[in-house]
Amino acid sequence: MSEATSGGTLGGVCVSRETLARLKAYEALLRKWNPAINLVSPRSLEELWSRHIADSAQLFALIRPQAGIWADLGSGGGFPALVVAALAGELAPALEVILVESDRRKSAFLMTVIRELDLKARVIAERIEAVAPLGADFLSARALAPLSMLLTFSERHLARGGICVFPKGESWRDELAEVDKTWSFELECHPSETDSAAQILILKGVTRA
């Protein structure tokens, strides 16, 4: 989907014209800021809706959150967190989205999008290790770090009974093998709708083995 002219399905989520228009406004802001602070690569900018927006929306579609805290680590240009927040405005208004991004220029961009799109979200401009425990019901991180490090972050920021949702590229099997002996969790693997080599890992009951 490349136009926000009518309601439709995005990443497995049925959304209204208003939500698509909000995402279109996000796209415009990202294109405006990107030359200065490199939020996404110029090549992927050409496929923004499929590569980034729909890719983020499918995480929301898999989790279907209703309420609670969705925390996103290393939010960068806002994927998936700002897309999750835009969808939540229509489909899960009780959900709060927290974006953790230590880069000051990127965090300024995120705050601008949140303000201009009137999203129920907030930015913490600190390093993940320095942030007070977030008690997240849902924890995401996209293209941030190996699974071993993400699970260490989850130990600090995930609420009891919380769910991790980590999109991973073609090395996902190797990353799972690396944490097999040190971590215990229930795992669901879902093929990505936007990248045939990728999987979305949903982890529950995360504890050290």
Protein architecture, described:
There is one protein chain. The protein is of the alpha/beta class and 209 residues long. The chain has a single domain (11-161), classed as Rossmann fold, CATH 3.40.50. Helix content is 41%, strand content 28%. The protein has seven helices and nine strands. The protein has helices spanning 17-37, 42-45, 48-63, 81-91, 104-117, 147-157, 172-179; strands at residues 8-10, 13-15, 67-73, 94-100, 121-124, 136-140, 158-168, 183-191, 199-208. Strands 5-4-3-6-7-9-8 form a seven-stranded mixed β-sheet. The radius of gyration is 16 Å and the shape is globular. The termini are far apart. Mean pLDDT is 94; it is low at 1-5.
Keywords summarizing the entry:
209 residues, alpha/beta, Rossmann fold, 7-stranded mixed sheet, two-stranded antiparallel ribbon, 7 helices, 28% strand, globular
